[in-house]
Design a protein that fits this description.
229 residues; alpha+beta; PH-domain like; Signal recognition particle alu RNA binding heterodimer, srp9/1; 2 domains; 3-stranded antiparallel beta sheet; elongated; disordered C terminus
């Protein structure tokens, strides 16, 4: 943007010049803000007594204090060029960065890791338990699904077979059916003297009921209906 602004023709409109200036200002403020944000987290000096960690940063000269219990882990801080130092992560999500160039940085990191040993072990164990708990819940869900599938399959196997409308009327014409039960106008249940119990899924209207009764079939209803009784 800077190159385009300075190499633009002299007769360029003021509006374009103003836009370029605004873009440069925004870019500069963003860069400055990023640097300030990082300097607030880059440790300049520190002191550690085994319980309390006191430090100041490049942009905050006042000493700050954090208890050891507030620290979650001390990890490696790496960049594109390789290791740069250590990253101190707190339980509230805040992170501090300690460069190798700070005196006794490696000693501090080693001692903190040692002091956090039991806490770190508890944290690792908790993280290990989470996948195990998730796997257990998944196993329970799969077992429940299999049981439901088996129960549903067995229930369906106990139900009478479904025959077509044509097969049903053929049984009626041959006088193999004496009685049927109509449920919700869409399901007919009955027993044939030749094939046994059966079901028919077909819409039932008044003419069909009259036709069945005219052929000597007793028709009953399990639910309320507006069919001719």
């Amino acid at each position: 943007m800077w190159w385009g602004f300075h190499t633009a023709p002299s007769h360029q409109s003021q509006g374009r010049n103003a836009f370029a200036i605004i873009c440069l200002i925004v870019l500069g403020l963003s860069l400055i803000g990023g640097v300030v944000w990082f300097w607030k987290r880059l440790i300049k000096e520190f002191n550690y007594d085994g319980r309390t960690f006191t430090f100041n940063t490049l942009s905050i000269p006042e000493m700050q204090a954090r208890d050891l219990s507030a620290i979650e882990e001390v990890g490696e801080w790496t960049g594109r060029g390789g290791p740069l130092g250590f990253r101190i992560k707190f339980r509230d999500g805040e992170k501090l960065y300690l460069s190798y160039g700070v005196s006794n940085a490696a000693v501090l990191a080693e001692r903190m890791r040692s002091d956090l040993g039991s806490t770190a072990a508890d944290t690792i164990a908790a993280k290990t338990r989470r996948p195990a708990r998730l796997a257990f819940m998944l196993f329970i869900a799969v077992c429940a699904g299999l049981l439901a599938t088996v129960a549903t399959s067995r229930f369906l196997q106990r139900l009478p077979p479904v025959i077509s409308r044509t097969e049903f009327f053929l049984e009626v014409d041959e006088r193999h059916v004496d009685k049927v039960v109509i449920r919700d106008r869409v399901l007919i249940s009955g027993t044939s003297s030749t094939r046994g119990a059966f079901r028919v899924r077909t819409p039932v209207d008044d003419p069909m009921v009259k036709e069945l009764r005219s052929r000597g079939v007793v028709v009953e209803f399990e639910t309320s209906s507006d069919l001719i009784p």
